[in-house]
Amino acid sequence: MNATLFRSVLHISALCGLYLSAAMFVPAMADLYVGHPDWQVFAMSGILCGGIFTLAAVATSGPPPVFTRRFGFLLVNVMWTTFTIVGAIPFYLSSYDLTLAQAVFESVSGITTTGGTVLVGLDNLPPGLLLWRSLIVWLGGIGIVGLGLFILPDLRVGGLSFFKLESSDTSEKTFSRLASFTRAFMAIYFGITLACAIGYAWAGMSVFDAVNHAFTTVATGGYSTHDASFGYFQSLPLLWVATFFMTISSLPFSVMILLALRKRISVLRDPQILAFLGYLTVLSTLVGIHHHLTSDVEIGQALTHAFFNISSLLSTTGFASQDYTLWGPFAVTVAFFATFIGGCTGSTAGGIKAYRFVVLYGVVRAGLQRLIYPSSIAIVRYGRHTVEPEVQRSIFLFLALYMLLWALGAIALGALGYDVATALSGSITSLSNVGPGIGTIIGPAGNFSTISDPALNVMSALMLLGRLEVLTVLVLLVPVFWRD
Amino acid sequence: MNATLFRSVLHISALCGLYLSAAMFVPAMADLYVGHPDWQVFAMSGILCGGIFTLAAVATSGPPPVFTRRFGFLLVNVMWTTFTIVGAIPFYLSSYDLTLAQAVFESVSGITTTGGTVLVGLDNLPPGLLLWRSLIVWLGGIGIVGLGLFILPDLRVGGLSFFKLESSDTSEKTFSRLASFTRAFMAIYFGITLACAIGYAWAGMSVFDAVNHAFTTVATGGYSTHDASFGYFQSLPLLWVATFFMTISSLPFSVMILLALRKRISVLRDPQILAFLGYLTVLSTLVGIHHHLTSDVEIGQALTHAFFNISSLLSTTGFASQDYTLWGPFAVTVAFFATFIGGCTGSTAGGIKAYRFVVLYGVVRAGLQRLIYPSSIAIVRYGRHTVEPEVQRSIFLFLALYMLLWALGAIALGALGYDVATALSGSITSLSNVGPGIGTIIGPAGNFSTISDPALNVMSALMLLGRLEVLTVLVLLVPVFWRD
Ligand SMILES: [K+]
Ligand SMILES: [K+]
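Predict the joint structure of the above. Result:
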């Protein structure tokens, strides 16, 4: 590990921290506008962090190092640590009394676009704090799409090398393409957020609620401005608007970018899109019909709430329109397993993700066939691509570690005294960046306000691990990583 | 698919069915001895089944086919279906009033050495029924070891080709070696059963209890002759005797056979033995200490019960000495995950099994290293052997399908109205052939007597799928299997 590498990692992280610090002036202005004293917290934090990061950026400036895997891994970890710290400062200093573990949890939950919250009485919170929550989710969404599009494929983490944007070009062309990709992505991200906000306002939300929920919808973050989440609004059209935008936000941005830049509709034939929309439709319909048949709720309403809440789980957004854990054990078990699944790779969604399931399906198909014809060469395909054995191995590595972390997290939560439903679902809802779990404490009707500090720390670690695709963090634990 | 193949499959299955029918005369004699009318049920069933299978065996006799994979897969499925039917007949016809689904569940639970029971009032049951339960478990144990040693490795199911007994010899030598292996296995199986029975009798059990529990211990089956299982005896030394024999019975018989035949102590260096004893010791110690610290139970007693119940889960036996789900959430979450793990390959234990975890560890290690040095050739080892990519793939195929079946099973149980703890644990305890789950219904203090017929059918299917290493059954669903 050489000094240039560390210096450069700190430099880029400081620049990112600087951007995030600048965002603090948005909630500062909101609180100043309504006359809430928290505006000083945001303004002072912004000035302080801004100053520190400016100094740090200057002190660490210099020629950039060659991009190596070590550099990439270290950069991602230090960047997200920086985001966590900057995000937590206003929570910790605000008028809302939080422990350090709670402030860190709320920050991590935001920047990882998880959306589980330790705050209660959201309806009466000052606008600054609410805006800060929504903002770090929205910015966290940009961070995660950038990571998924530009960094993780180069690091070959979890079999994502497919999503590498043509790297065979010369480096200059690559750079100009990267710039045009970034512009296209930002335009699309802004565009969806704006469209979502307009949709929410049209369906009855106040402008403030519409903006906040649009931020956390497009980032599949799930923070709400009301304790009852979408249950507060009691509007079926609004649920469909949200369902539409949660689903859109779980589709790969890479595909949307290519669609915008190349105008070729064929890019929509990404198999993971079909898989995601497929399991979303099947599970929502089954839960809706089951709920209708086992209650006196009429079918339209049952399907609306089923589609909303199941999309919310599969897109890893985490909004809730009702306590669906009261719909009976079928809905609860589906909700539990939905928490593992997730959306598409290249979106803001978390979880195992549709792409990996598509490959897994191919591997299982090929494997069963080889049981009968052992000498048959069973090629696993992803659309028009062949999935190389190396990529298959990466996906299995990811899955094995994902399940291991889930189990260890759940056992840790059990050891800290939480019942089995809370432990099993709390671990996976953190790791998959969903938000709500099952059970009475952290279920859709609950929140994380009563969770003890040690348990919050476990969940914060799981959220970061899940958000950074597990391997990006765990690679730091391999001794050889630190050797020269 | 040709006729010779079907004929031969039916022939071998009929011979196996005949052996199992002959076993019915043991409970018949026991019931005749105490004067219970059920003796007629067993005698008549034995004569009837014996007659049918004799006819079937004669009608299907002929030259054996060449051993192909198709033949192997079909044989295993038809054999275990035969066992299920023969096992269920006495339950269905006995004085104990059972539905067909309950009788089938009890039979499957026995022959798969699972040990979950729909019978209550075991303490007052006639000896014939109790002996029949223990006998089918014990015979099921022989079946599963034979399957694991002689058939599955040839079918290359789930990465078990390692455990193939040297196949490079000429076929005549192989046959004589097979015969000496079989003799050695039967001697060891008898020997352990006898030693276990003597141990139980020494520690205070009646001869009848000692024999029954020895049968179900060595087969890691877990049927007891008392509703309270080992809780009935209230004896700490007895728990240690049981812990010892449950652990022994989870070790690979292949190793014990080699030890007996070749007298080389080095065969004990099978990495899965170390792994199994390692996680057994760590989990038991943690649960014991945690139980001691969070209650007023003294450390010796806490550790005794922890070792007994955790060994019972990891060996997939399923005995219980106490309702360990009352020891707090840590014990419950550990018990839940212990249900997935299982013992060693080549034993009567079920679950994912230590061997696969050893390989998984190697794959994870190699994968993390390749993240840093992508061009490094990371060889995965199992002891002195290299784990070929094909074997790694088989193991992943197994794991993926195992988790999928667990999820589908749990969702099915949820849809049938069972709470999330019962659904999640009921599915995996069936698939792993453990027996007890968590929750109030099927937890260690409960049983399967109140479970509805459809749910019992789901669990019976899961028990058979798990016992036959999943792939052996699922391969029948591949259309190409049935094509010529
Ligand atoms: K979320
Ligand atoms: K068992």
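Residues 1-96 of chain A form one domain.
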